[in-house]
Structures are given as C-alpha cells and as structure tokens.
Automatic annotation (TrEMBL):
Binding site for Zn(2+) 1: 534, 537, 574, 577
GO CC terms: primosome complex
Residues binding Zn(2+) 2: 543, 546, 561, 564
Keyword terms of this UniProt record: ATP-binding, DNA replication, DNA-binding, Helicase, Hydrolase, Isomerase, Metal-binding, Nucleotide-binding, Primosome, Zinc
Cofactor, how bound (note): Binds 2 zinc ions per subunit.
Originating organism: Mucilaginibacter xinganensis
The name this protein goes by in its record: Replication restart protein PriA
A Pfam family the protein falls into: PriA_C
Domain Helicase C-terminal: 569-723
Keyword Protease recorded: no
Keyword flag S-adenosyl-L-methionine: no
Function of the molecule: Initiates the restart of stalled replication forks, which reloads the replicative helicase on sites other than the origin of replication. Recognizes and binds to abandoned replication forks and remodels them to uncover a helicase loading site. Promotes assembly of the primosome at these replication forks.
InterPro entries, A to Z: DEAD/DEAH_box_helicase_dom, Helicase_ATP-bd, Helicase_C-like, P-loop_NTPase, PriA, PriA_3primeBD, PriA_3primeBD_sf, PriA_C
One GO BP: DNA recombination
Length: 828
C-alpha cells in the first residue's frame, strides 16, 4: 500500500495558471494550482488569489501550463469560483487588443469589462439587500453569521468577513449569498434598479353581464355623468386592446383622476399597479406591422449589397428618415440565421423609443446592458449572453465587453456621438472603433448610422473602405423643420429681448402652447450662472481642487465645481475687497427654467440635465411626462439632442449657439453642426413640419448657414482641407500623453524631459508640452504632449511600442516620482 501511494504521489502533475488581476500592473501574474483543482482549472474561470502581503482578489485565468515562474516563487490559488468559464476566449483576445491599441494594462480592461459582482476584492464593500426578504433558517451557518454581522454593521469589506469567519476562502460564500439576492455590492446601492410601474384598469367582472352594465349606466348618467363617460371610454378601448392604462383612460374619456378613483371605490373599476418594462409597452404593438417606404427599401438593399463586399457600412440618413426600421429588418435576417446582434446606443436612457420598438419584435430574446442597471441585473445578462438566451443585445459603450459567442452584426446608432469615447479611467476606448474590431473577430458586419456622421467615418466611406448608403428624405415625406436665425445683438439693441428669449422665439413658444403643442429649449450649460463676479475688483470664486471658476446652482444655493464635485456657499460679500456688489454672469439651464416660470406662469416646465437626472428613475419620469403631455416646455443640455422622438414637439429653441461655435478645438465646427442639426431634428417628426429658432450673436456664421441648408457635404469638404493642412484626423493619428503631478514646477520639468526623449525618436511629430484648457483637476496639475503620426507609411504598433518603452524608462528615473502618465489614443 505504501509503495502504491508513493507511486501515485510521484505521478502528480504540478500546474500553474497565469491570471489577469483587476489592477494596473504591466504583466500577468502566475500562481500554483493545488492538486485537487488540476482537473477543474480552465481559461476564463475565476480564481481567488492573494496579491501583495494580504489582499485577496478575484482574478481571471488567462493561460494554464506546467512552467513555474523564474523570478519569484508562485503562491497557491486559494479558491476556484466557477463551474464554467465566465469569460470566453474571444473576450480575452478582445481584451488583449484593447490593452495594446489603447496603451493600457489588461487589468484596467478587466476592471472596465466585468460587472463588480464578478470581481470581488478585499476592499469590496458588502451590504444587505433591503429589497429582498430571506428565510434565514435556510442559510448555512457561515452565511447566517455574515447576515447577522450585517444587521449590526450595515457595511462590511471582504477583509472584514475574512476576519469574521477566520478563513480566507470566503468568496464562494459571498457568491452564494449574492446569487440568493441576500447581499449587494455597495458601490451599486446608490443606483438601485427600481421597476417602472403603471396603473392598469379592468372592469369588475360583475359588469360583464349586459343587464348589470345597463343598470350601472342608468345610475351614473343621472348622478355622475363624468364617471359614465369613463366607463364608456373603457368599453370603447377594450374592443381594440388587452390592457388599458389609467393615463390612457383619462385621456380618452376626458374624465379626471377623481372620477376614476370614485369608480374604483364603487368597485366598478379594479386598478392594479403592474411592473412594466422600461423597454416595452403593450400598446406599442401598433409598430410591429410597419412597411418600409420605397426609399427605405432601396437603402436596405444597398446595405445588403455593400455587406457582400465590405464589413462596415455607413448609413447616412437625415433625422427622422426611418433608420431604426431599416435596422430592424437587418436584425431579423441576422437572428434568423442563428447569430447574435449587438445594438449600441450613445445614451441608453434617452433612446426609449428605439428600445420599445425593438422589444416588440424580439420579445424575450433581447437583453439590455448598461451601467445604470444594478449588479444583479448585469450579472444575469452576462450569463444569458454566454448561454445564447439573448439574440439581440442593446447597450451603451460597455456592452462591447459582453461574452458573445457568435456575433453576426453590430449596429452603432448615432455613431458620431462623443459618448462612445471613454475618457476616464483607462481603457480610454472608443466603442465605435472597438465594435469594428470585435465584429471582425467574429466575422460579423458593422452598420454605422447617423444623420451627421463623424468625419472619420464619412472619409472612410468616401475612400471605399466602408460602404456608404444615403437616405435624404424623412419617413412619410415629412419636411425638415423650418429654421430661423435670430440676432441676439440686434434684438438687444431694439430692446425686444425678454430675459434670454428673442421676440421671435417667444412668439413661436406662445403659438405652440396655444395649439397644445410642446417646446424643447436647448442650452449647453447646466446650473444657474457659470460665473459669480465682483463688480468692484473682478474677484471670481474658484474651485480649491481644480483650475476652474465655480458655477452657481440655485437649487442647492451653492457654488459647484463640475470637475471634482466640490461645493461652497455663495458669498454675499466679496472676500477680496469686501464689496457687496456681486453679480451673476452667464446662464445655464436652471436660469432658463427660472426665467420661463416668470414669463409663462401657466406653462408646465421641466428641466433635463445632469442635475435633474442623477437618480435611477428621474430621467425616465421626465420622458414619460413629455410623452404623456404633462410637460409643455422642456429645457435641457445636449441630452435633449439624443434620441427624443415625440409627435407633439413642434418648436425647438437654441438659446445661444455661440457657446458651441466659439470653442477652441479643431472639431468645434463639426461638433457644432452635429449638435445643432441633431437638436433641430427633434422638431416636427410625425406629420407636422417643425420650427427651429437659433439665437446667436453671429447669424452669418458659416456653420449656421450650413445647418439651415442641411449642407453636411459643404461642411465636410471645407473642414477636410483644413485638417489636411494642419495634420489632423482622419489624415493623421493622434496620441496624447497627460502628465500629472501635485506640484506645478515638477510636472513642468517631467513633461519637458519626456517630450525631449520622445523628440529623439519622433522629431517634429511631438507637440508640447502645454497645459490643457483646465490645467488642474482634483489637485493634480496637468501637462499634455501631443503626438501626430501619418496614417500611411508609419507602423502605429511600432510607434506605440517605442512610446511605451520611453514611458517605462522615464518611470525608472528619480524624476518621475509622484507623477502619473496617461496615454490617450485617438483622444477626440
């Protein structure tokens, strides 16, 4: 027996796994696999490992092998968490590409890609799920102990739980509690998902009997005619649809909410609150039998023809041309062939109508994924993508990280949007460009859609790298909105301005209100006043952490920094000279809303900006109220330009176009055109020609004329000449290096040194260093080095390799102490 045991022991295989840790470290780390796990370890599964002196992390196995690391002794894997891989081989390839292309670490990509619940670490905070009642008698001893501890202390870290249980292997226990909905990851708690509810009405079955119904009408017509109208309206609606919402019945009958409540109290109506998807209403079924117009059919066939030869097609269709309907027809073909579809949107919460329509066609086979869903939901979607339960995935930029098996098509809607670019933290990727690589990996196709394409995409289409399909007519033959430009300077001289509103805009708003139509007003700045200034000494309050002035917000009564969140009380006396002559300069959405309330006291107003849409349901509430005509005038920032499609919005007011046009950026004209055209496109989308009023100090500005004439090509050709001359994309690639330090002199010296090292390799392709527009954020001073490289004749991969080596060499010097170097590839 002893000889056999010794023989068995000598045959044991020692395995090692290379893992990706959720940390910004340059290389993957190798761990030794306990013998009992040998048969279970697999690429893509999660393991719990110790990194550093005592910290535990959830890591992803990137490779398995038999070679031990040469330079250090491998620690043992503590625990294996999964029965099957949670990350696919294709995803790991995608992560690797993203790490190399965007010059970041695999750990940073992993952090961006995985939902928080799949990457628990020592410092991750755990809280009880207050929305879930659990029978504690079914919990195991250790699970019960954790829950009891959370009753006493509402928040515990994973490290706390390790100490509490006296063991390192706590991740499987936490995983079990998470799957039972007993606990939540605390970073998700502030944005808990709350189901959207609607009140639905059914008639008491007693009144299905014709005699009883006749008797009821006899009583109501004499005593409560409004209630009789409500019952009559219900019967009328019930002939055509299965479920009737309370809002719909009030609109149809003209009876008030009080009449409906009385009928409920009399037990004539039964009212039930139902959870309804944010993505689908039963009444939207009317969309399901649409037919494409002749122009749409031509466009659809052209897209298919291009897909026979090319992998990427750009659909350039004017606002309200029916691009979504074309998408739906293409999606149907792809999923009928058994493949998956990813539909990317720039602002998931603002594209309600697209989501609703898609849900009508694809039902339970469509999944939604974005950061406003809580961790439970995101993990559930993740698992359903792996098992191919979802055929269509709808999401914001982070959806490119989902574990697709067989991706046949990616649609990038509004592909020009800057929201597709991740600015902080790393990876600083562009979801549009990442989608093209991802589709290529899966041998799938990409359809880019926009009324105002990015110049890069349009350029690629014109040189036949992408297919190009153009749709120049609105669906149903609706005319593009009439655009009128108003000179703010002229109206100010004539004293016809009312606050920030010209006489033309006020007349159009009043006319719309008289016709019971709706208005959207656009001002690309939130808050009440961007500047508080002393009239005597010109003192302006500034953020203590950032190099920016503070913005006054009337709702909080405080001065806010829009970069770091710092807040301060608004002074009544100038702290510099003691003067009481302080005044607010400029205006934001809050001021516009405030002034409108005084000018139009009977109008129902709402505001849509970052301040009013922070909570999970606030944005949806605003959109619902706009759809249900509870709002007459909506004031908003650029949020109002993205995806809003309401039949009764007939007037759009752009309060000050100059804030867009005068921005110091080579893309200013392109972005201004896109923003103005997109905002204008919200008007008159369903049968009525809309009206757009653009207020500006420069009515003759070229871009404004091009917006009026819908002259995208004129803008494109003019801007391309300038970009070619000054070496900007799409003719050149740009890589920015931001160097940050808490001392301004040190960061200057560091950036000069780094720029000189780069010039030794790249000569005049290196520009700077120079401070950006905001040169200090969160107490870090910033210097930026810009590198420009030709697209032809230069290997960008070799260039990035050289830049990495120079940064690494710089970081080994004493000069680099305390600095942060952040590469940003394709920064704009």
């Amino acid at each position: 027996m002893l000889e056999f045991a010794e023989a068995q022991f000598t045959e044991r295989e020692t395995l090692f796994v290379e893992v990706i840790l959720p940390l910004a470290i340059a290389k993957n780390y190798t761990y030794r696999v306990p013998f009992e796990m040998n048969d279970a370890v697999m690429v893509g599964k999660r393991v719990v490992v110790q990194f550093g002196k005592s910290k535990l992390y959830t890591a992803i196995i990137a490779a398995t092998g038999k070679l031990a690391p040469e330079k250090y002794q491998a620690k043992y894997v503590i625990e294996l968490l999964d029965d099957r891989p949670v990350v696919t081989g294709e995803q790991l390839r995608f992560w690797q590409w993203m790490s190399e292309y965007y010059m970041c670490t695999l750990g940073e990509v992993m952090n961006a890609a995985l939902p928080s619940a799949l990457k628990l670490a020592s410092e991750t905070k755990i809280v009880l799920n207050k929305d879930f009642e659990v029978d504690r008698s079914v919990l195991h001893d250790k699970e019960f102990l954790i829950v009891e501890a959370l009753d006493i202390q509402p928040e515990l870290t994973v490290s706390d739980i390790v100490k509490l249980l006296g063991q390192k292997t706590v991740m499987p226990i936490l995983k079990s509690l998470f799957e039972k909905n007993v606990i939540n990851i605390s970073e998700e708690v502030s944005e808990r998902y709350k189901p959207r509810t609607r009140s639905f009405i059914t008639l008491n079955p007693v009144y299905q009997n014709p005699d009883n119904l006749k008797e009821l009408f006899g009583i109501l017509e004499k005593r409560a005619p409004r209630q009789a109208d409500a019952v009559l309206a219900y019967i009328k609606l019930a002939r055509h649809q299965k479920s009737i919402s309370k809002t719909e019945l009030i609109e149809e009958s003209g009876a008030g909410a009080a009449s409906i409540k009385s009928l409920e109290e009399k037990e004539v109506f039964i009212i039930e609150e139902k959870n309804v998807s944010r993505l689908f209403f039963e009444e939207e079924e009317l969309y399901s039998n649409f037919e494409l117009s002749e122009k749409q059919n031509v466009a659809l066939n052209e897209v298919k023809e291009h897909f026979n030869k090319m992998d990427v097609v750009l659909l350039h269709g004017v606002t309200s041309s029916g691009k979504t309907q074309i998408y739906i027809r293409i999606i149907e073909e792809i999923i009928n062939s058994g493949r998956q579809v990813l539909y990317l949107l720039p602002e998931i919460a603002l594209t309600t109508h697209i989501i609703e329509r898609l849900r009508v066609y694809f039902g339970a086979s469509i999944g939604i994924y974005h950061s406003r869903f809580n961790d439970n939901e995101r993990v559930e979607v993740w698992q359903k993508v792996i098992t191919k339960e979802y055929k269509v995935l709808l999401g914001a930029r982070s959806a490119v990280f989902l574990p697709f098996n067989d991706l046949g098509l990616i649609i990038v809607d509004e592909e020009h949007e800057t929201s597709y670019k991740q600015f902080d933290p790393a990876p600083r990727y562009n979801a549009r460009d990442a989608a093209i690589f991802l589709a290529n990996m899966h041998k799938g196709k990409v359809l880019l859609g926009s009324a105002t394409p990015s110049f890069e995409s349009y350029y690629n289409a014109r040189i036949h790298k992408y297919g190009l399909v153009e749709l120049n007519e609105r669906y149903g033959g609706v005319k593009l909105p009439e655009i009128e430009v108003v000179s703010i300077g002229l109206e100010t001289k004539q004293k016809t301005m009312q606050s920030h509103f010209s006489s033309v805009l006020m007349a159009d708003i009043n006319m719309a209100l008289e016709k019971k139509e709706q208005v959207i007003l656009f001002q690309n700045r939130r808050g009440y006043a961007p500047l508080l200034i002393c009239k005597i000494c010109a003192y302006t309050p500034k953020c203590i952490n950032c190099d920016v002035s503070l913005t006054y917000h009337k709702s909080s009564g405080k001065l806010h920094c829009h970069y770091c969140g710092y807040k301060d009380d608004s002074p009544k006396i100038c702290p510099a000279c003691g003067s009481t002559h302080l005044e607010y300069k400029g205006f934001g959405t809050e001021k516009i809303e405030d002034d409108l309330a005084m000018l139009l006291p009977d109008a129902r107003l709402a505001r849509m900006d970052l301040d009013t849409t922070r909570s999970r349901n606030s944005l949806q509430t605003i959109l619902n109220n706009l759809e249900e005509k509870k709002i007459d005038i909506l004031v908003g920032t650029q949020m109002v330009a993205k995806g809003l499609d309401f039949s009764d919005v007939t007037v759009i007011g752009i309060i000050n176009a100059d804030s867009l046009l005068k921005f110091p950026d080579y893309r200013a004209n392109e972005r201004s055109y896109q923003m103005l055209a997109q905002v204008s496109g919200r008007a008159g989308r369903r049968g009525k020609q809309g009206k757009v009023v653009i207020q500006t100090y420069d009515p003759a500005h070229r871009v404004i004329r091009q917006v009026i004439e819908n002259d995208y090509k004129g803008l494109y050709f003019t801007e391309m000449e300038e970009r070619r001359s000054f070496k900007y994309p799409p003719f050149y690639r740009i890589i920015n290096l931001d160097i940050k330090h808490k001392d301004p002199e040190i960061v200057h010296n560091q950036s000069v040194y780094l720029a000189n090292e780069l010039r030794k390799q790249f000569d005049d392709r290196v520009i700077g260093p120079q401070p950006p527009m905001v040169s200090r954020i969160r107490n870090y001073y910033i210097q930026t080095i810009m590198l420009k490289f030709e697209k032809d004749g230069v290997s960008i991969n070799k260039v990035k390799g050289v830049i990495r080596d120079i940064i690494t060499q710089f970081q080994t010097t004493r000069l680099s102490k305390g600095s942060i170097v952040q590469p940003d590839v394709d920064p704009y």
